[in-house]
Structure formats: C-alpha cells, structure tokens
Amino acid sequence: MSNSLAIGCVTAALRQLLGAVPSPLPGDPSPDPDLADAFVTCKALDAARLHGDEAKKQLNLFLFQVLPDPAFRNMDMQGRVNSGETANQPLALNLYYVLTAYGANHDDVLAHRMLGRAM
Length: 119
Prior knowledge:
- The chain is built from 2 helices and 3 strands.
- It has 119 residues and is α+β, with helices and mostly antiparallel strands.
C-alpha cells in the first residue's frame, strides 16, 4: 500500500469506472438509453437502497473485506532496498467488493443488464 489514501483511491477509481455503465461499450453501436440515468453509490449493503430510491437505477459498490496478500506480504519493495539493506515491508492488500445492481421499480431484468455492463 502506497499510503493511507490508497484504499479510498481504489474505491473512487472503481466508482468512476462504474459510472460509465450508460456509455457505449466497445462494439456497441450506441449507448444503452435505458441506463442513461443510472448512478453509482458506495454505501453499506443495508443503506444502499433507502426509501425513495426504488424509482432509480443504481449500482452499489461495497468494500466488504480487506485481507493481506500472502504472495506479496514478505517481499521487499523493488528498487527501494540496496543489497544487504532492509526496509519496511509494504502492506500488500487484497480488496474484496460486492457490486449490487438495482433496477428502477424493482425491475430485475434491467438490474441484470446493468450488472452485465458493469462486469
């Protein structure tokens, strides 16, 4: 981990990428008009769909688990340590997210279309 902002930056980058769900995908002739007003949130699972949000199309990204990466846990940072010297080991983490899609007015087919485009 580069610094204390790294986890938040990863979440923000994923949120920005998911915000492009209504845009045309490579090979698509045009954007999906049914997804034009979809929005992305980063809320807890029980707070993602609050009262009044049922009429909106939404993707929710939730960071549910952070674990140390066993493969990188004991490696020195490349290019930072000279031969014979020691340095602090980097904090290598695996971030696990849950992505949930909600269609407007409980439209499951639309939710699955959004989830497919997000993937």
